[in-house]
Please model this.
Amino acid sequence: MEIQLKDFKRFEKQIILKKVGISGQKKIKNSKILIIGIGGLGNPLLTYLAASGVGNIGIVDHDKVELSNLNRQTIFDPSDIGKFKAAQAKIKIDKMFKNIKVKKFQEKLVKNNIKKIFKNYEIICDGTDNFDTRYLINDECKKENKILISAAISKFDGHLFKFNFKKKGSCFRCFMPEKPNLEKNCGSEGIFSPVAGILGSLQANETLKTILQLENSLNNNVLIFNSLNVSLRKVKIHPNPLCLNKCTK
Model:
């Protein structure tokens, strides 16, 4: 795809960055990104990827908009309550960014459909809120050599993971080999709404860096954010010799 004059004007402030330029903007436009979960993380992630010019975005979500979502899921408004998130998100993005192809998968991600849904996307962005789905996504990305950029939020904290399965290294199961007895998520523990915006934006930042092939030190790491202390901490995730995915250095 070529960069049209109207595209240049829209992305001018991005294109003038030496690490982006016209060639980088073409990479962004030609990229294919799948977002799983259009909730507190998926909203800012989708918005920033679309605003940056990502040309092909898939969104996976089977939930409907609820009133309690509106404090952090900023794409939606009261008129969206009771409607499917994936459908409403596509409508909003289509209206704002007419040159972007958005495909919605208004279904629950399960073992029987994951291969079909993942097939045409290069980078998988996980914004789900349960461990069963996280393990499913992780394992499929590992199997198909996809790049996985995953985020999680709860209370005042957030985590950001990056795994490039095109190379050897760790996976999410190395970090958490077994599902915790207690499922911790926004629904059970609450969430400070700016944390969703910050982690979703960091997820978008990492995705765009990956598209542009910029120096990336988050590979096989988890970035831990605490909003009360305003602190960021990066921890290396080493391959676990007991990992079910047989991860190696």
Observations:
- The longest strand covers residues 147-154.
- The chain has one domain: 31-236.
